[in-house]
Specification:
The chain is α/β, with parallel strands linked by helices and 339 residues long. The chain has 2 domains: 229 residues, TIM Barrel (Alpha-Beta Barrel), CATH 3.20.20; 79 residues, no CATH class. The chain is 42% helix and 14% strand. The chain has an 8-stranded parallel β-barrel, surrounded by 7 helices. It has a 3-stranded antiparallel beta sheet with strand order 7-11-10, with no helix packed on it. α6 links the parallel β4 and β5. α11 packs antiparallel against α12. The longest helix has 18 residues. The radius of gyration is 20 Å and the shape is globular. The termini are close together. The relative contact order is 0.14. Bound molecules: flavin mononucleotide.
Length: 339
């Protein structure tokens, strides 16, 4: 058996679920995963996912149609469950015949999974723990993504390697995709061997030639090392902060100062709890756009996973996927499992 045949056996469930050659998803990245990157990933045999972020329904419809004009291959749409127009966004996906809807950013509200499935879409959900994975499957999710804390962007507290050990042996009814910290094909192979149906990578695709990100944003990724991609922390447990993994810059330093200043004003009675919390949360408003689109890499948010250290140059998506495949195949050959 060739290495590719063995790999195809290992990820056959993921390929069938996604309808692709490779069970590699390009994780949705707000402002980054637009029509160009998504179509490039799908055209190269992977599975692109549009990041809808805070888009209103009409913009999402336009993005889906523009992506369909660039690829006939399957792709998905990532919706943030907290979006106030979630129901309308699901309807847009269904009307535009999107095959896979990925519900991200917290537990989906009751009815969302059912509405998407009744409309004919497949529904993938993020599970940060085994009990939640089980609950989501019971609610109708037909695939699960587990994303560890190595990932870029908003993260949970548990690492990919531990989540994989806790969840992969237990959730067998639906395909499970592993995300967070994957930068090379050897890691893809090992998660498949542990029972994953496929994988999802975000950081590794940011420096794709087809990616719209500003050259300065890409340059920061090419220069950045794993230890510089750090999770944000709350200074005071009274004011929780959802951890976001990003490359350190002026913006992340000033975020600590901002928290200190707001907490001092709260303690002095100048702000109430709600005002203080809002002021802390508001600090990052628009910051990802400033970095990705405007190239303000000093003050904007450079969301990046620890795998950023393995991003060393700009490359076409097809080359990134070919590298990952070659690494997985070489690992199989080295184990004597394939010719
Ligand atoms: C810049 C950036 C933006 C992201 N935005 C989103 C998002 O809008 N929705 C989402 O579900 N995940 C988002 N993610 C997470 C990715 O989809 C993916 O799961 C993650 O990057 C995988 O880990 P990796 O970065 O280690 O490959 C984002 C990640 C990055 C780096």
């Amino acid at each position: 058996m060739t290495a590719r045949q063995r790999l195809d056996q290992l990820w056959s469930r993921g390929r069938d679920y996604l309808g692709t050659d490779l069970a590699i998803m390009g994780g949705a990245m707000t402002w980054v995963s637009d029509r160009n990157l998504v179509a490039a990933i799908s055209n190269a045999g992977g599975f692109g996912v549009i990041a809808s972020g805070a888009m209103p329904p009409d913009l999402l419809r336009a993005e889906i149609q523009a992506t369909q004009a660039l690829t006939e291959k399957p792709f998905g749409v990532n919706l943030i469950t907290l979006h106030p127009q979630l129901d309308q966004l699901i309807q847009v996906c269904l009307e535009e015949k999107v095959g896979h809807i990925v519900l991200a950013g917290g537990l989906p509200p009751g009815g969302a999974i059912k509405a998407a499935r009744d409309g004919g879409a497949k529904v993938m959900c993020f599970a940060p723990a085994l009990v939640i994975a089980r609950k989501l499957v019971r609610s109708g999710a037909d695939a699960i993504v587990i994303e560890g804390s190595e990932a870029g962007g908003h993260i949970g507290p548990v690492s990919t390697s531990v989540l994989a050990q806790e969840i992969l042996p237990e959730i067998r009814d639906v395909p499970v995709f592993v995300a967070g910290g994957i930068g090379r094909g050897e890691a893809i192979l090992s998660y498949l061997e542990m029972g994953a149906a496929g994988v999802q990578l975000g950081t590794r695709f940011v420096c794709a030639t087809e990616c719209r990100a500003h050259p300065k944003f890409k340059q920061a990724f090419i220069r950045g090392s794993a230890r510089e991609a750090i999770a944000s922390v709350a200074l005071d447990s009274r004011f929780p902060v959802i951890p976001v993994r990003a490359l350190q810059n002026e913006g992340t330093k000033r975020f600590m100062e901002k928290q200190r200043e707001v907490i001092a004003r709260f303690d002095a009675g100048e702000l109430d709890q709600k005002q203080a919390q809002l002021e802390i949360e508001h600090y990052w408003a628009g910051a990802l756009r400033r970095a990705v689109i405007d190239g303000d890499v000093e003050n904007g948010s450079l969301m990046a996973g620890q795998s950023v250290g393995m991003v060393t140059r700009e490359q076409p998506v097809a080359d990134i996927l070919a590298d990952l495949l070659a690494q997985a195949e070489a690992a199989l050959q080295a184990r004597g499992q394939a010719a």
